[in-house]
Specification:
Bound molecules: pyridoxal-5'-phosphate
Structural class: alpha/beta
Strand order of the largest sheet: 4-13-12-11-10-5-9-7
Helix content: 25-40%
CATH superfamily of the largest domain: Type I PLP-dependent aspartate aminotransferase-like (Major domain)
Shape: globular
CATH class of the largest domain: Alpha Beta
Strand content: 15-25%
Order of helices and strands: HEEEHHEHEEEEHEHEHEHEEHHHEEHEEH
Low-confidence stretches: 161-168
Largest sheet: 8 strands, mixed
Mean pLDDT: 95
Distance between the termini: 9 Å
Length: about 425
């Protein structure tokens, strides 16, 4: 097997040196620092379709897609023109615009699970606000969170999972008071017994159970449908709101997210990523009754200077209009399956302990491929093989997110031809890594 030489990173290297003097770790979001993989982070200059170019002129097929938002790829002409059109009228007013109605109408029309929505500016903000709403609506303080699920960086949710049964939260970030963390009950995923016990031990204290119905921030921990159904039943029986954090899965596996994909109705939902067409948008939604608690209708305060920003709304409208087309998700899913099948077949035939886990257009490189992984502690923490594969892939023109715990995404503009080429490259790269 011919070894491909390392890509030139001289521009990225000098930009990163500069950046380190400005930002902690040289970045504005930690995973971007390439700490879990080799070399300095690539500074990206532009993207078009399913490709990106770095500052050194290297070109890559992009499977990171800005960590999920770009379901139509980079610089999609319809998104681009709606952004420009909106921008011509000004960037922000801090007053209502027609565009907010338009995006809300588009979402609610295709989503049977929520009746009202509120736009914010990030996934973190959506979750933080919806959590306050859950507590305000129920008058309860405790929440259930599942080990390995990421819900943004608000205080109550930065709580580390303990293994075993119910662990009283110990914060996993400095700066989160122990007293906050103690309101968060952390449970293992896919474990009905632990869930039943936790609920029994905290009668009428739990406001909500928050879960990524498709946990995709710590590997891809696909849950058994029965677990999710039981979670729904137990929540209903005990007056606990079921909170689906669909910041990744929303508009990704189906227009109305995992709720639609699995046919399970949550009480509270959050969106982010895809909803803003690449611009910063998040949202939370619920029934009219629950949403009536939100200010100014109700006592749960939540506000935002740039919430419902017209340029961001325009991008969301353009992107979600494409997603709402008949057959959009079936097409994306079948393309993704056709991309992954030959890679998994190759790994199996060669006897590599590797398998790509997939749902919809989300995939995860699992280097413990013989094992079905549903809980975060089942993941092998040795990411050495991922690290090697990541740099081989970069050298061969494929960009994956720089962490073995992160998932990859296929967009509507990854053509079958490009995916076939990428699959071949990934097979060659596996051969190089396993050689
Ligand atoms: C990305 C993500 C968040 C955080 O969203 P930000 O926009 O990064 O703040 C929250 N929950 C889930 C499930 C996510 O995937």
């Amino acid at each position: 097997m011919e070894k491909i030489s390392d890509i030139n990173r001289s521009q990225s290297t000098s930009l990163f040196e500069k950046a380190k003097t400005y930002f902690p770790g040289g970045v504005n979001s930690p995973v971007r620092a390439f700490k879990a993989v080799d070399g300095v982070p690539l500074f990206i200059k532009k993207g078009d379709g399913c490709q990106i170019w770095d500052e050194d002129g290297n070109r890559f097929i992009d499977f990171c897609c800005s960590w999920g938002p770009l379901i139509l790829g980079h610089n999609h002409p319809k998104v681009y023109s709606r952004i420009v059109e909106a921008l011509q009228n000004g960037a922000s007013f801090g007053a209502p615009t027609r565009l907010e109605n338009e995006l809300a109408e588009l979402i609610l029309k295709h989503n049977p699970f929520i009746e009202k929505i509120r736009f914010v500016s990030s996934g973190t903000e959506a979750v933080m606000s919806a959590l306050r709403l859950a507590r305000g609506y129920t008058g309860r303080n405790k929440i259930i969170k599942f080990e390995g699920c990421y819900h943004g960086h608000s205080d109550s949710l930065l709580v580390k999972a303990g293994s075993g049964l119910v662990t009283l939260g110990a914060s996993s970030s400095a700066g989160v008071p122990e007293s906050f963390a103690q309101e968060t009950l952390v449970l293992p995923l896919n474990d009905v017994e632990a869930l039943e016990r936790c609920i029994a031990e905290h009668p009428e204290q739990i406001a909500c159970a928050i879960i990524e119905p498709i946990p995709a921030n710590n590997g891809l921990l696909l849950q058994e449908l029965d677990f999710l159904k039981t979670l729904r039943e137990l929540c209903t029986k005990n007056g606990i709101l079921l909170f689906f954090d669909e910041v990744i899965s929303g508009f990704r596996v189906a227009f109305a997210g995992a709720a639609e994909f699995y046919g399970i109705k949550p009480d509270l939902v959050t969106y982010g990523k895809i909803i803003g067409g690449g611009l910063p948008v998040g949202a939370y939604g619920a029934s009219k009754e629950i949403m009536s608690c939100v200010s100014p209708d109700g006592p749960v305060y939540q506000a935002g200077t740039l919430s419902g920003n017209p340029v961001a709304m325009a991008a969301g409208i353009a992107q979600l209009s494409e997603c709402a087309q008949q057959g959009f998700y079936q097409n994306l899913e079948s393309k993704t399956k056709a991309f992954i099948a030959p890679i998994n077949a190759h790994a199996k035939q060669k006897g590599y302990n590797f398998e790509i886990v997939q749902i919809g257009s989300i995939f995860w490189l699992n280097f413990d491929g013989k094992k079905t992984i549903r809980k975060s502690d089942e993941i092998n923490p040795d990411m050495n093989m991922f690290r090697k594969l990541h740099s081989v892939l970069l050298n061969r023109g494929i960009y994956m997110g720089p962490s073995g715990y992160e998932v990859g995404f296929v967009s509507s503009v990854h053509t079958p031809e490009i995916l076939e080429r990428a699959a071949k490259t990934i097979c060659d790269s596996l051969d190089e890594v396993y050689a």
